[in-house]
Amino acid sequence: MAKTVLVTGANTGIGYALCKLLATEHGCSVLLGSRTKSKGEKAVADIKKLAPNASVELVEIDVSSDESVAAAAAAVKAKGVTLYGLVNNAGVGLNTNGDIIETNFKGPIRVSEAFLELIEDKGRIVNVSSGGASSWVRQQDEATKKFYSDPDISKEALVADVAKQAAGAEGGWPGTYGLSKAGLTAYTLYQAKAYPHLTCV
Predict the structure, then answer these.
(1) Spatial separation of the C-alpha atoms in residues 126 and 197, rounded to whole Å
(2) Mind listing the pLDDT tens digit for each residue in 148-182?
(3) Fewer CB in 10 Å around end: N or C, the chain?
(4) Are 180 and 173 in contact (CB under 8 A)?
């Protein structure tokens, strides 16, 4: 039976490339997450042009919206689908008008928690971080470095600290972007301990 994988932010870039690879070379059933329906439909069509028999389907999901994520999870659940993997890829870059923390940090938390019950035992959650995470952490004091690399970190403490750090974050590199990715990496440490039945990386 084909493994089903949901990839967020998958209508372009890394997410699209991953969906194409999973669907055309690994025989996976792919749920291609896209905030914009038209862009997601084009991405699905492009993959099917390459491999007409590929199993790839659009899931409309805006990771920065509680309502959108809940609706996406409900739609997938209604199909009776069990996920082998969830890839939290959706994100915004350094030069963006969007809320970086809401998308890059809170988005994966929102999506992971909404889809957790749909991920099979021994499945996996993959969070796409970046070098901005380590760049940000390296610039912090020792206590902050220790906090963001603590395998026993609590989600509540992490969310609170990211909010505090964001309030005083400076522009430029790594700035708020680096903080968002450092927070995501730390959240992955939390997930690895909280969900021992899954592989969280």
Answers:
(1) 14
(2) 999 999 999 999 999 999 998 777 788 999 999 99
(3) N
(4) no
Nearest to 39 by CA among 10, 66, 8: 10
Hey, what amino acid is at 120? E
Q: Among positive and negative, which fits the CA dihedral 197, 32, 59, 108?
A: positive
The shares of helix, strand and coil residues in the chain, as percent rounded to the nearest 5, are 55, 15, 30
* pLDDT value at residue 1: 79
Residue 97 has pLDDT above 70, yes or no: no
For residue 113, give the nearest of 163, 61, 70, 57 by alpha carbon.
70
**Distances from the Cα of 33 to the Cαs of 41, 91, 113, 148, 150, in angstroms?**
10, 12, 16, 29, 31
Model confidence over 20-53: pLDDT tens digits? 999 999 999 999 999 999 999 999 999 999 999 9
The average confidence (pLDDT) of the chain is: 95
Contact 82, 4 (CB under 8 A): yes
Q: Which of 94, 165, 95, 180 is closest to 133 using CA atoms?
A: 180
CB atoms within 10 A of CB 63: 26
Reading phi first (left if > 0) and then psi (alpha if -120 to 50, else beta), residue 194 is in: alpha
Both tokens of residue 7? 């990839």
In the block, tokens 């699209």 appear at 16
